[in-house]
Amino acid sequence: MIGSGRRTSLFRTALARPSGPPLGTWSKIPAQETIELLALAGFDFVVIDLEHSAMSAESASRQIGVALLAGMSPIVRVPSLAGGLVQRMLDAGAEGIMLPHVDSAEEARAAAAAVRFPPAGTRGVGSTSRAGAWGAVPREEYLRFGDEVVLIAQIESAAAARAAGEIAAVAGVDALLVGAADLSVSEGLPESDPHVVQLIAGAVEASHARGVPVGNAGGATTDAVRASIDAGFDFTMLSNDASLLGGAATAAVRAARSVTATIQENA
Q: I want to staple 24 with a disulfide (CB 3.0 to 4.6 A). Which of 45, 91, 241, 244 is the partner?
């Protein structure tokens, strides 16, 4: 939560816990209540998805505020570095930026520059935004927390997987997230194919060799989480808000239909 005192990254705190990998999910529904429900469920972080949803910057800003007040780390996936969206989401209080399709160290350096204040980067000062508690936080503290903001580079191609070590070595890159779906599609192979599995394993190993954590996006099941841990991932994402809602709704209707079907059979 942003206040007038020293702020600590909720995402980094969750990563440092010895009790297991931080759990997150995607937010695709532009509603504040979704974020509140996810926080109440116990998620450590949420990635507000501006790449694969109709979410607006305003909706994302409101979700960031709710997440911070609820004690859940808000990270925003931007579609690209263009348009000043990174700056706006960080001013809105996002604890991190996730950038898709980072294929090289050069692209990672451009992302890091957009996220960091000078001299490390080019992020502009906007301390009268939520990130600076609307001006209540001293300028020094606002700038200091800029170093705690996380940059997560997505590895979504064979080229990116092979360059994972170089990407992880870029100053300002705090974590990688392997996008197995895009990676497998780019290779024309299923995610379970040995070639794809090997590319992912190589990316995880290379990132860990640089001391950089790696995450993934998987299903909301115990088997999926166990597989993520076994594969060496340091944090994992469980489905997304829309799919979780749809799955719960489908299960509820299916259960109800089974009762009515039994009544009809016994009639």
A: 45
| Residues 6 or more apart whose Cβ sits within 8 Å of residue 189 | 195, 196
| CA 4 and chain centroid, separation | 26
CA separation, residue 131 to residues 40, 65, 139, 185 (Å): 23, 10, 11, 37
Encode pLDDT of 194-215 as tens digits: 999 999 999 999 999 999 999 9
Could you tell me if 187 and 161 are in contact, meaning their C-beta atoms sit under 8 angstroms apart?
no
CATH assignment of 10-242, among 3.20.20.60, 3.40.50.410, 3.30.1330.10, 3.40.50.720: 3.20.20.60
98 and 108 in contact (C-beta within 8 Å)? no
Average pLDDT estimate for 241-266 = 89
Q: Catalytic residue among 52, 101, 195, 208, which?
A: 52
Measured over the CA atoms of residue 224, residue 230, residue 231 and residue 236, the dihedral's sign is positive
**Whole-angstrom Cα distance, residue 54 to residue 60?**
10
Contact 166, 203 (CB under 8 A): no
Bridge partners, residue 98, by sequence: 77, 152
Residue 121 CB coordination number (10 Å): 18
* pTM reported for the whole predicted model: 0.94
